[in-house]
Amino acid sequence: MSTRVFRGSVGSLDALSLEDVEEFQENVTPKSDEVPAVQPHLFVQFRHPDEPVTWQTTPNEMKIVIVKFLDYRSRQSLRRVSRSDKLLVDNTKFHVHPSSSKLPYFPTSSSFVHFPRISSSGRIRLEIDQGAIVDLTEQLKQTKQRITIRTELFHLQGSPTYPVGILVVDFLEFLDVKDVLIDGHCPLIIFELMIDLDQWKKSRSITFNHFNDLPINPFLHVNILRLSLEEISIEDARKVIKVFVNKKILKAGTISFYIKTKEPIKFWKFLDHTDYELSQKLATHGALPSVQVLIMPNSDSLVFPVMAKEKLFCGCACKMDDNLVENFKETLGL
Amino acid sequence: MAPKKNSAKRPQPSTPKPSAPARIVKVQSSDGHILQADVRALLLSSTLAATIKGYDDENKPLEKLEVNNVVGFTLKLVLEWCEKHKEDDPAIAQAEKDKKNIFIPSWDRHFLTKLPMGNLFDLITAAYHLDITGLINYGCKTVANSAKGKSTEEMRELFGIPEPWEQPSTSTATWDD
């Protein structure tokens, strides 16, 4: 009789299911022509005794229990270990509990189908790493019913050296977003795709934290703008001031811009004169900025002070009262 | 192996009741090791409980239980855990089954965290085959705690998972005549 030796283990097979085990048991059962006269006790050895026990030889049912105890980041680490672990993590439910607003909750990209309905009463922060965005976007694309994720703020976290990729554009398409915050270098080709999106055009605020060389026009529709630019021309600076001053609003503090530049700004060329009293109040480290208070023609009783210095110019809608300087500073985070 | 006397710290009934004498049976591992255990401890395993019940129903004397898929070392750990928990309410383990966060008692934490990862996986696998809910809960939670915050590389090392190019293809035959 030939001896059947099970090489490897049940647990090490990719995406093991109960059907796999049944198939395995079916295969291990001796065929009628192989059954010896004295039939030995059939014993299904789940693993070879000499085989070291590792994660891979652990039953899938147990792996699922372990994954259930893991937090989002650990799950993401595990799903990058191997294809079978990716399938394992993707097929393990991950629940987001909307009851708490204090701690960040992390959905796995692929457990998106198990998202609960999140009540509007709580604020929940969801973090998805860029690798997982690819998978999540793919799933969203493949979903027959169009899905839109309503969110207040989309923050692409990154570093100056980490470029914004096309995946962000793809993912943004599925968001109904009010505020967009982008870190890192944004290549012009990606930027041009991004500004074509409805999500961009409808956004309330846009922030680019790191220095980029981008045209100013696509940013002018927002109410709150924070930009870091390589440089800004006199014409663009004038355009920014003109657009923001002419915006129609009722409430102070809801319109503002804050633009930092790498290259010095020739601010004296677009600010006609300086309010010396305000300039003194807004001075930092002894350097007096140039400050000009502009009337907002479309917003009753509001003014728009614009402050400029070597590498910064900013402004916001304020009430013309005793607290103007404090409100200006607070709104712009000065 | 004589059962441990671990009831010293447990609350004793105010009026001493005539307790039933411990019913000790032999348990044989897959590699032939014979251990001894209190039946109450073995009842934590649904698999063994069914076997014991079968013997009792037929009034057969139960002398030796064969556990064919757990090696001696692991079986010893399983029995040690069961002995410690033989008086636990099984409903507690069942209630914790679907919870995301469970509290691991001090004794269990020390018992499980001292084990190398390989033995821990062995213990979990044994608990799975023997269907011991409480041990599955605590064992899996301990593994998860060890893995928390680890990077992919650290997790690969912790779990003994080879690099993708080192892994044999599972699409080819795994049987050898």
Task: For the structure shown, list the relevant keywords.
heterodimer, A: 334 residues, alpha/beta, Monooxygenase, 9-stranded mixed sheet, 11 helices, 10 strands, elongated, B: 177 residues, mainly alpha, Potassium Channel Kv1.1, Chain A, 8 helices, 4 strands, disordered N terminus, cullin family protein binding (chain B), ubl conjugation pathway (chain B), SKP1-like (chain B), Skp1_comp_POZ (chain B)
Reconstruct the topology from this structure.
The complex is a heterodimer of chains A (334) and B (177).
Chain A: E1 5-6, H1 18-28, H2 60-69, H3 72-79, H4 83-90, H5 130-142, E2 149-156, H6 166-172, E3 175-182, H7 188-195, H8 198-202, E4 205-208, E5 224-229, H9 234-245, E6 256-261, H10 276-281, E7 290-295, E8 302-309, E9 312-316, E10 318-319, H11 324-332
Parallel strand pairs in A: 2-3, 3-4, 4-5, 5-6
Antiparallel strand pairs in A: 6-9, 7-8, 8-9, 8-10
Chain B: E1 24-28, E2 34-38, H1 39-42, H2 46-57, E3 64-66, H3 72-85, H4 90-96, H5 106-113, H6 117-130, H7 133-147, H8 152-159, E4 175-176
Helix pairs in contact in B: 3-6, 6-7
How would you sum up this structure, described in words?
Chain A: InterPro entries: DUF38/FTH_CAE_spp, F-box_dom, She-1-like. Chain A: It comes from Caenorhabditis briggsae. Chain A: This is Protein CBG01231. Chain A: Residues 191-272 form the DUF38 domain. Chain A: Residues 59-96 form the F-box domain. Chain B: Pfam families: Skp1, Skp1_POZ. The complex is a heterodimer of chains A (334) and B (177). By secondary structure, chain A is α/β, with parallel strands linked by helices. Chain A has a domain at 55-94: Monooxygenase (Up-down Bundle). Chain A is built from 11 helices and 10 strands. In chain A, strands 2, 3, 4, 5, 6, 7, 8, 9 and 10 form a 9-stranded mixed beta sheet that branches. Mean pLDDT of chain A is 73; it is low at 1-18, 27-49 and 96-121. Chain B is mostly helical and 177 residues long. Chain B has a single domain (24-166), classed as 2-Layer Sandwich (Potassium Channel Kv1.1, Chain A). In chain B, 46% of the residues lie in helices and 8% in strands. Chain B is built from 8 helices and 4 strands, in the order E-E-H-H-E-H-H-H-H-H-H-E. Chain B has helices spanning 39-42, 46-57, 72-85, 90-96, 106-113, 117-130, 133-147, 152-159; strands at residues 24-28, 34-38, 64-66, 175-176. In chain B, strands 2-1-3 form a 3-stranded mixed beta sheet. In chain B, helix 3 packs across helix 6. The longest helix of chain B is centred in the C-terminal third of the chain and has 15 residues, at 133-147. Chain B is globular, with a radius of gyration of 19 Å. The N and C termini of chain B lie far apart (40 Å). Classes of the chains: A alpha/beta (334), B mainly alpha (177). Chains A and B meet through strand 1, helix 2 and helix 3 of A and helix 6, helix 7, helix 8 and strand 4 of B.
